[in-house]
Amino acid sequence: MLRRDFLKMFGAGGIYYAASSAFSSFASTEAKIVTPTLDPKITLLLSDCHINGYLDKHPQHIRQTFCEIVAEIAKMECLPQRIVCLGDFSYLWGHKQDYVLARELLKPLTDLGVEFTVLLGNHDRRSVFLEVYPEYLKSTKIPGRVVSVVDAGAIDYIMLDGLVGADDRNMNDMGPGHGMFCKDQQDWLLAELPKWKKPVAFCSHWPIESLNVGEEPFANLLAKSPNVFGYIYGHKHRWRQSMVKNDSDTKSVQTLCIPSAGYWGDIGYAIMRTEGDISEVTLTQKGFWYPKPNPNIKIWNMITRENNGLNCIFHLPKS
Ligand SMILES: [Fe+2]
Questions:
Q1: What's the CA-to-centroid distance between 293 and ligand 1, angstroms?
Q2: Where are the beta strands (DSSP E) in the chain?
Q3: Exposure b/e, 236-256, CB count within 10 A at least 16 = b
Q4: Spatial separation of the C-alpha atoms in residues 307 and 284, rounded to whole Å
Q5: pLDDT by residue (tens digit) across 270-305?
Q6: Under a CB-based contact definition with an 8 Å cutoff, are residues 207 and 241 in contact?
Q7: What angle, rounded to 10 degrees, do the helices at 96-105 and 60-74 form?
Q8: CA angle (133 as vertex; 130, 135 as ends), nearest 5
Q9: How far is the CA of 234 from the centre of ligand 1 (A)?
């Protein structure tokens, strides 16, 4: 029996046997139960999961890939302490079934104590999300929006809600393609950011170029805030690193786009490890496809090979 089959037999739950001798001797009295540890320095970054709760009607590859990712993470001997998920958690329309199923699919990790925080993308629907995840009603920094601050030890993540008007749209409308912060959220950012004490990464679903705060590009505010070390987003379904300048061309913000966890484009997840004065993000690319997997398309396989293992390093400011 292969080690991975053995692990599978006991579920992706992460409680596994470690034998002091070779694996084949697991049945011996030397076997003992080891509980995997959570590593506070590690964060799993997921985006654009597009979980489809209608099990029979929608593409199966999305959910299958997401489950593969969850199982792969659950087998890590040092688990990420937390998951930060960058929106488009629902398939396309923000249906309740999607959010209910998403919670179920994450259980192999959350049952092990992995913390989970998600923000909203254009395919989400805030009121439906809050029905299934009412805890955000209490934790949000901005009433009426889903804004989270995640304490990750040496750093913080501020997870913003750029979803505009999503609850006014028809049930089968796919949501607004652009992002926007409400006035209360903009005021909160302008008031809080100058006082922020720890190195902080900002997260939202949309590219930074499409967002404004106080009638200025969001990049202006982040570039002049000494404790901000980066901006992490989704929406594009591609791994993309770039330095975005403020509009006076004097400073820049390092940005990173995280691939989709199963829908289309670059497919995969990223592990962010913070140690000393850097946060290093490493991509595990599981595939590339549009609109669905096809192992015979050579260029897609090449993209996957080339992207897998790519790194992005954020340098942390001294706080
Ligand atoms: Fe998406």
A1: 16
A2: 16-18, 32-34, 37-46, 78-85, 115-118, 148-152, 155-159, 200-203, 212-213, 216-217, 228-233, 240-245, 252-257, 265-275, 278-289, 311-315
A3: bbebeeeebebeeeeeebbbb
A4: 8
A5: 999 999 999 999 999 999 999 999 999 999 999 999
A6: no
A7: 30
A8: 100
A9: 7
Q: Taking residues 153-181, what's their average pLDDT?
A: 90
Tokens of 280: 């290093």
Query: Hunting for tokens 């293992």 — which residue is that?
Result: 309
**Structural domains of the chain, with CATH:** 1-35 (no CATH), 37-315 (3.60.21.10)
Partners of residue 269 on adjacent β-strands: 284
Out of 187-191, 247-251, 257-261, 278-282, pick the least confident: 247-251
| Ligand 1 ion: Cβ-proximal residues, 5 Å cutoff | 48, 88
Rounded to two decimals, the pTM is: 0.89
